[in-house]
Amino acid sequence: MDRETRAFAEQHFRDLGGQLYGGGGQAPSGVAFIKEPATFSYADFVKAFLLPNRPCVFSSAFTENWGSRRHWVTPEGKPDFEYLLQKYGDVVVPVANCGVQEYNSNPKEHMPLRKYISYWLEYVQGGCSSPRGCLYLKDWHLCRDSSAEDLGDVFTLPVYFSSDWLNEFWDALDVDDYRFVYAGPPGTWSPFHADIFRSFSWSANICGRKKWLFFPPGQEEALRDCHGSLPYDVTSPKLLDTRLHPMLQHSSPPLEVTQEAGEVVFVPSGWHHQVHNLDDTISINHNWVNGCNLANMWHFLQQELRAVQQEVHEWRDSMPDWHHHCQVIMRSCSGINFEEFYHFLKVIAERRLLVLGQGSEAAQEENIGLGLGFQQAAFDVGRLAEVLASVVTHPDFQRVDTSTFSPGPEELLRQLQDAVAATTTL
């Protein structure tokens, strides 16, 4: 990030005045298609898509040098099952059954990749039908389970998505990540959802085609049924029943995108979407959070806690440590609670403060492996300070035992605010 882009982004958030970023509004008339890497900069992406929170599609030129597009795909554009079996055949992968609804998702099983590929071939040979159902390889943590050397021959992270706090945090803990491979035949699909923690995501088709149905933040509310639940499948005829969906008349048609082989889709924060594979398709997908959607993540976590508290409200007076139990339940349901969110902020904050402590000239180097410059770190610190200030005053966070936190929340906030003041004019 350069100085001008940082100033632009900081002004954007000042203009928001604390309002939720990227919410509401009608769908744009179309999705921009970015053709040439040479003429599209990181600053262009920040200003045109990241800050406005709008989707876009990057052309196949952005992925043409990826090893996965050479090795995982046949000259005919189909998955190279022979290569995949040789390279990953014994790897155990998660597989979802698209034909079975379990709440608003699909049940999963685990099997060796070679077993899934055998099913895939039989499914296609059977006219895209199988007594085993419609199975979809989803959420395979290839990056987490591979060496850096192997990954270097799979894909190169586009610079536009390089400010990725979510995976930076999990990499620092060395326990998990939010980088996935999806693969499946025609007819496999992902039900209607918004991405975890209201993260951004990007999805690159290594081969095949996908159809995306997008709804901007807020438009999903008109799709709720009479019980307040969101739909599982927005293409279902059930959605047309106005007795079940009384708000349907206020809904707008989805924004539809067909993603071709090699193209990359940017999914903005809080946009609900549904995705269908039109061909034999393999994709690489990352969820990511940074300074631009951090406040959205914090807002989402507050909503999640309120939902838990509402569900167990009747035991509030009779259950010892009721507030603590709500945090435990939230962690189980959402994958994170207020305590872990603070540790997430702390890890990122300490790394950014380290960059700023090196000074603007030293920080121009590829410091501590993050590829961050001084201006990016300064912007990040400002966003961290604003969100942490909200966290430390939240009544439910104040009930969290922070006595063993180092530094404590108030001390970390002071450090961030001091850094903001020191870098305002730099």
UniProtKB/TrEMBL annotation:
InterPro entries: JmjC_dom, JMJD6_ArgDemeth/LysHydrox. Residues 146-305 form the JmjC domain. Keywords: Iron, Metal-binding, Oxidoreductase. It catalyses: L-lysyl-[protein] + 2-oxoglutarate + O2 = 4-hydroxy-L-lysyl-[protein] + succinate + CO2. One of its GO terms (biological process) is positive regulation of translational termination. Its cofactor is Fe(2+). GO terms for molecular function: 2-oxoglutarate-dependent dioxygenase activity; catalytic activity, acting on a protein; metal ion binding; sequence-specific DNA binding. Belongs to the JMJD6 family. Interacts with ETF1. Interacts with the ETF1-GSPT1 complex. PANTHER family: 2-OXOGLUTARATE AND IRON-DEPENDENT OXYGENASE JMJD4, ARGININE DEMETHYLASE AND LYSYL-HYDROXYLASE JMJD. This is 2-oxoglutarate and iron-dependent oxygenase JMJD4. The gene is JMJD4.
